[in-house]
Amino acid sequence: MTIWRKELAGEEVDYTGDYLKVKGGTVLYPPIQKPYPPLYFGGSSDAAMEVAAEHVDVYLTWGEPPEQVAQKIARMRKLAAAKGRTLRFGIRLHVIVRHTEEEAWQAADELIAYLDEETIASAQQIFSRMDSVGQKRMTDLNKGDRSNLVVSPNLWAGIGLVRGGAGTALVGNPDQVAARMKEYAELGIETFILSGYPHLEEAYRTAELLFPRLNLSKPAGAGDRAFISPFGEMIANNKIPEHRVAASSRS
């Protein structure tokens, strides 16, 4: 990431590390986003947090209860400040939003209605062998117990019974889900990476029911395509072809 950031910022890079060596490294096609596309990164281990503090632009957390997210943000701000940097923050969540709270919780229950205890136990055993600190934090929220899945108001850990990674969902009516998102925003969360099951149907529900409750705006120029794609123009060296007009004569 040290090499990547410098090259995309327009520098010519000479670098010798334990695993990588670069001399005269440059990029042919400069990025539209300056100085480079923002780096999004998640990790709850000490090592991951140190990397994030030094390199990334947006630190991501899975959907933990607000008090745990607040602790993470505070720690990451301290680590980044020690390196003379500041970070932005994002969160990865599933969403189950319906017209009424009852409909939302019914949809959540239906997602795991056919999970038997053997399937849950098998998944939890696999998770227990992982060395991911983030996965351990997700697993600790539900502890494999389907009777203890509401881990914070409108925050449901049922997905994490059998799914690795992001295992929580915001569940409720549009006002409830919007209120929970605003609570995270007040902690410092700027970016919400959302998904649902089935993906397409939940995307429509989120746009139609939830988005009107949120203060959303389209960034200026968003969607504008003001660049030329490199695909079809790739070359195997650092010499960019010059456009030349050949002189010709006819007798």
At a glance:
This protein is α/β, with parallel strands linked by helices. The protein has helices at 2-8, 46-55, 66-82, 101-111, 117-128, 133-142, 174-187, 199-210, and strands spanning 13-16, 21-25, 40-42, 58-62, 88-97, 150-152, 155-156, 169-172, 189-195.
Polypeptide structure, described:
The chain is 37% helix and 17% strand. With 251 residues, the protein is α/β, with parallel strands linked by helices. The strands form two sheets. Strands 3, 4, 5, 6, 7, 8 and 9 form a seven-stranded mixed beta sheet that branches. The chain has a two-stranded antiparallel ribbon with strand order 1-2. Helix 2 (46-55) links the parallel strand 3 (40-42) and strand 4 (58-62). Helix 2 (46-55) packs across helix 3 (66-82). The longest helix has 17 residues, at 66-82. It is globular and about 65 Å long. The termini are far apart.
Uncertain runs: none
**Inertia-based shape:** globular
Radius of gyration: 23 Å
Query: Helical stretch count?
Result: 8
Main structural class: alpha/beta
Using brief descriptors, characterize the structure shown.
globular, two-stranded antiparallel ribbon, TIM Barrel, single chain, 37% helix, alpha/beta, 251 residues
SSE layout and pairings?
Layout lengths: L1 H7 L4 E4 L4 E5 L14 E3 L3 H10 L2 E5 L3 H17 L5 E10 L3 H11 L5 H12 L4 H10 L7 E3 L2 E2 L12 E4 L1 H14 L1 E7 L3 H12 L41
Parallel strand pairs: 3-4, 4-5, 5-8, 5-9
Antiparallel strand pairs: 1-2, 6-7, 7-8
